[in-house]
């Protein structure tokens, strides 16, 4: 690979094609490694998620994006390896959270870590309950990184976590891979629409979450609105039971 062809502007690395160009022949392995890191390691929150999976799916059907040649990716390998990497990464995050607890998040804010991201993950964990939160978090950038160790820290049973982790991991990865592959096969010049396509995916994925939040707020306005809050887990309170 010619390093002189790599993008020099750091903001360009937010585009998934920059990573795929870097990985070159090992692009499939690189995609799986990023999936694992994004769901299992705290620094993974800065890595591309939905956009990378969608683009990888497209590159199983086309080999040129914006005039650049890419190594064709294997759809079967992605469909099998993607969920495995996502599940394994999340299980690692859950294990780290259970083992190290609050110490895992006891660090100052930086460019790759902010306490507000943990608070956001905790909000979804509390709002939707552990099982639904684990699945829904897959479709929310940053939250899908922090919710896994948060679930471990708050004491979510490892077997229950594995079940819903597997459901979310399979649906998230394979749905985006298949969508990218289908559009890459059927839509001419699909590479021009990668970023708009990712934006549409993000909007569609948060619609159910917005509905649940609105329903929750409506329920909170009822006469017993303070009851559920008292039993919810918190970073500053007791663990989930």
Automatic annotation (TrEMBL):
Protein name per its UniProtKB record: DedA family protein
A UniProt-annotated Pfam family: VTT_dom
Homology family: Belongs to the DedA family.
Keywords: Cell membrane, Membrane, Transmembrane, Transmembrane helix
Membrane topology label: Multi-pass membrane protein
Region described as Disordered: 218-241
Annotated transmembrane regions: 18-36, 41-63, 75-97, 161-181, 193-210
InterPro entries found in the cross-reference section: DedA-like, VTT_dom
Gene Ontology CC: plasma membrane
Keyword flag Membrane: yes
Domain (VTT) ranges: 47-181
Domain of life: Bacteria
């Amino acid at each position: 690979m010619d390093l002189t062809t790599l993008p020099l502007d750091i903001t360009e690395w937010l585009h998934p094609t920059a990573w795929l160009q870097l990985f070159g022949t090992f692009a499939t392995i690189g995609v799986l490694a990023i999936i694992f890191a994004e769901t299992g390691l705290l620094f993974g929150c800065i890595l591309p998620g939905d956009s990378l999976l969608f683009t990888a799916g497209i590159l199983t059907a086309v080999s040129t994006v914006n005039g650049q040649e890419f190594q064709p990716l294997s759809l079967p390998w992605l469909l099998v390896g993607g969920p495995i990497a996502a599940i394994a990464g999340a299980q690692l995050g859950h294990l780290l959270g259970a083992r190290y607890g609050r110490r895992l998040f006891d660090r100052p804010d930086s460019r790759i870590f902010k306490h507000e991201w943990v608070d956001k993950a905790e909000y979804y964990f509390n709002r939707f309950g552990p099982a639904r939160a684990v699945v829904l978090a897959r479709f929310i950038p940053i939250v899908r990184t922090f919710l896994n160790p948060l679930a471990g820290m708050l004491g979510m049973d490892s077997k229950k976590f594995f079940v819903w982790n597997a459901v979310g991991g399979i649906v998230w990865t394979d749905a985006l891979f298949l969508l990218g592959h289908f559009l890459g096969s059927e839509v001419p010049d699909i590479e021009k629409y990668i970023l708009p396509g990712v934006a549409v995916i993000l909007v569609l994925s948060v619609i159910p979450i917005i509905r649940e939040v609105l329903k929750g707020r409506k329920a909170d306005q009822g006469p017993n609105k303070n009851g559920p809050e008292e039993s919810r887990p918190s970073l500053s309170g007791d663990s989930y039971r």
